[in-house]
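Quick one, T. Sequence first:
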Amino acid sequence: MDIGYWIQHITDIVCGYPLFILLIGGGLFLFIYSGAIPLRRFGMALNSLRMKHRGEGSVSSFQALMTTISSTVGMGNIAGVAIALCVGGPGAIFWMWVSAILGMATKFFEGTLSIMYKGKDGNGVAQGGPMHVIVNGISPRLKPLAILFSAATLVGCLVLMQANQLTDSICQVCIAPLGIATGFTTRLIIGLAIGGIVSYVVFGGLTRITAVATRIVPFMVGFYFLMVFGIIIAYADRLPAVVEAIIKGAFCWEAGFGAMAGVAITGARRAMFVNEAGVGTAGMMHGASMNAEPVREGLVAMLGPIIDSGFVCTLSAIPMIMAGLYNVDGVQGLSIALNSFDALIPYAGKYLLEFVVTIFAFSTMFSYSWYGTMATSYLFGPQHAQKYRYFYVATTIAASVVSLGVTVSIIDLAFAFMALPNMIAIFILAPKVKREARAYFKAH
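Structure tokens:
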């Protein structure tokens, strides 16, 4: 009996339509139930970033948002977009935009609840997240759900895929062209370098992680924007065709409703894994905010999906559609992106994109360590949190030299078990969030 086969088979089932319905369907419900808050209160959300903080916590709302974005803006914004184009064509990008708006609604509820039902660790330090929302907001009798979420977080927030893919890309772009063998020794050296950089940041705790994220996120998004903007200027004649391909592909009526639905599901599913709306990670970070007003934190939290699944994914999609290299056999990701940028920026494109990929990957590695540390603190006490950091760095190094295989399926499955208790809590407490929001908007 092949256990690996069954793990991957179960993961494909659970992380397919069931997870899609839970997160995307749940996001649609919350969007409607909230009265389209992502659209009606977008300006207020931007203004909320400038307000002062008066509550218990470790970071500002802006730092919480930047750290959340640093965890979601990663390889998925590049390789994930390439996969969406491979499977669903340019039309999938439109449905990524739709998914981003629905994700904003979900994160509004996550951010609001993280402040409404903030908890404390064994040292009395204020914390947030689904585990505290479940116990403090619903009932202590549902603590098994909180434990399920925390246990799944220990596994789901390991960055094995990011470390492995980053090593692959460095070998492909930087090492192999020099004629250097990219075997075990080379990959181990790269892994140790990655582990060293990650160690420096994650062992500094939340203060250092948020400080790095606050600086790195605006820089990396800004650099990526300038690079893509330069491509748009250089190939301005292709831009109308890109827009036309996205819109026509999204509503491919001539191919039948089934084909259009397939394109929509492909785009929405990729965005779902990029912005993590409903998974619960956002609540953990925004729960550490010093913000004393739950709805204002919810407004800040909802900006995340429009930046990662909306803006950054669009920056990735435009050059790839312009290059037109996504029509390949099988499903490919990062290689399509590298080839596309290299075709549009001869001699330098793949190196510039490799720089972006490296920054994106590291940003995810830094932030994910915090989620695992918080889960460890909740399950075993804050005195054991440091042990998770050692384990986290060790697995990051190991991922650089091993074939992931079944491991990635296990991590994907863990994400599903994070989402389930989190979304249950959101659905149960949604009426309380709505009442809180109504009172806040009336006062402001």
